[in-house]
Amino acid sequence: MKEPENHLGKVFIVGAGPGAEDLITLRGLQVLQMADVVLYDALVSARLLDRSPAGAERIFVGKRCGKHSVKQEEINRLIVSRSLQGKTVVRLKGGDPMIFGRGGEEALTCADAGIDFEIVPGISAALGVAGYAGIPLTHRDVSSSVAFVTAHGARSGSSPDLDWIGVAGRVDTLVIFMGAAWLGEIADALMGAGLPETKPVAAVANATCENQATALATLGTIAAEVKRNGLIAPMLIVVGDVALLCEKLDWFDRRRLSACSTVCA
Fold first, then answer.
1. Active site includes 41?
2. Which residues touch 96 (CB under 8 Å, ≥6 apart)?
3. Beta strands of 94-182 (E only): which ranges?
4. Structure pTM?
5. What is the distance between the alpha carbons of residues 82 and 51, in angstroms, rounded to a whole number?
């Protein structure tokens, strides 16, 4: 790795958090407020973008399943080119950049180009679901192990990547990222791998945002329940007995219902 040159800018790879604008870290907000360039994802709050300087260049590089507006290679090129212009570049990514966020790829691009960079962790979407939907991913009496997996790997997006399916029976809680489009196939595969059709499942859409919604069901019924409730991506799927705890612990939804009752009274 080459040593960074003084005339180059610096790149900050920043986790914006799971959705709500106030869940970015203090460090993340500090570097955002000094950015010359912000490259941001589809799930980054517009109100959070407004925290960047008024004169900052804002470049949308969002990617959604099957709808890639900008290829990763182009994102990497933009990061490098703006830094070579001596600018402070903030790569603002939903959740945590190092958990299914391709932050590692972007950091390697900077390292290979000899560009100074810093990784600013963010609250992962999985932790957002745990905190706001009331689903503790671990619990002393229910779950002592948890695995994060993604249904969307290096494939084209026409079918789910289920290379991880064998782990399902070896952990108490399974958190599935980017699986909304293939929820039925995933549920069938998990049952085929030995999980009972009665295994509790929660699907949480738009976690931490005002339109957060949760469907609680079982492996055998979750696909139909999600469809019945009209839930769509972005969505995380939590498989395991901890999912049932959201019935008592979903403080966020109860707060909204209480606020609605107050306004409508």
1. yes
2. 15, 103, 121, 122, 123, 124
3. 116-120, 146-150, 173-177
4. 0.90
5. 20
Which CATH architecture group holds 126-251? 2-Layer Sandwich (3.30)
Catalytic residue among 2, 10, 22, 63: 63
The active-site residue, picked from 36, 41, 96, 250, is: 41
Instruction: Please list the pLDDT of the chain residue by residue as tens digits (265 residues).
Output: 444 444 689 999 999 999 999 999 999 999 999 999 999 999 999 999 999 999 999 999 997 655 557 899 999 999 999 999 999 999 999 999 999 999 999 999 999 999 999 999 999 999 999 999 999 999 999 999 999 999 987 655 578 999 999 999 999 999 999 999 999 999 999 999 999 999 999 999 999 999 999 999 999 999 999 999 999 999 999 999 999 999 999 999 887 655 533 333 3
Domain 10-123 matching CATH 3.40.1010.10: the answer reads yes
